[in-house]
Each structure stands twice: as structure tokens, then as C-alpha cells.
Amino acid sequence: MSACIAVSNLNKKHRxxxxxxxxxxxxxxKALKKDDAKLEIVFLSDAAIKRVNEKYKHSDxxxxxxxxxxxxxxxxxxxxxMAISNSRVWSTTPEKELILYVIHGMLHLFGYxxxxxxxxxxxxxxxxxxxxxxxxxxSLSKVLTRR
Length: 147
Prior knowledge:
Elements: E1 4-9, H1 18-31, E2 38-44, H2 46-57, E3 65-70, E4 73-79, H3 80-89, H4 94-109, H5 117-137
Parallel strand pairs: 1-2, 2-4
Antiparallel strand pairs: 3-4
């Protein structure tokens, strides 16, 4: 069985190449040996992800990534506003930051955690190795499309 991945962009401020992100997510699943996973990735604004964070995590602030297990399907919610803003803070590209958030959310779905220092270090190493593998094989420049 192969992966089933849906990608949608509900943040109209930024144009996401949904097909390209889906292809990237397939590569991430393959790297994680989760080829048969069902996954939904949704890009939101800061305001929209804040509402979800308040409702389900009881935190009154926007966040970068939220992950939810929904039965047999995983859902990753990403603030594209925050990714693009943070790309300037971290001196990286918006495309790379967006894909980093995709990886981070997917790792949460498959048992990685970043609450404790040791777990955060493990997750960070895995995240970096996947990002490095992706960047070595493809250009992430297609993540965002221009208006």
C-alpha cells in the first residue's frame, strides 16, 4: 500500500505549491519507513493556527506546527506566516523553513517529541538529517509559487 497524502493551503497570503509539498512529504515518509501512512498537511495563517491551538492545546498564542493523530490518519497544521517570518530570524529561505515545519510535524506523528532536552536533541538530529537528504536531492525553491 502506498502513502495517501493531502495538502491544502488555507492561508491565501502565501501561495504554496501543494503538489510539490505532497511529493516532498512522500519522500519524508519513505525516509521514515512509513510508506503506507495517511496524512493531511494544512497551511494556515497565524490567526487560524492560534484558534486551533487555543481549542485543542489550551494555549492562547499562535504556534509554528501542530500535529494530530486522527484515527488512521495524521494531520499536520503549519503556520506559513510564522515559517516565512522565522526564515528571516534564522537566516534561511522561506521554502526551507516551511519544509522544516512539515518534517517537524510529521516526526511528532511518528513518536518524536521535543518536550525534554534529550528528546529534543534526538528529534532535531532526525529533522536535520531528513532536511539535508531532501536538499541534496532536490531544490526546495518550488515550495512557494509566485503571484
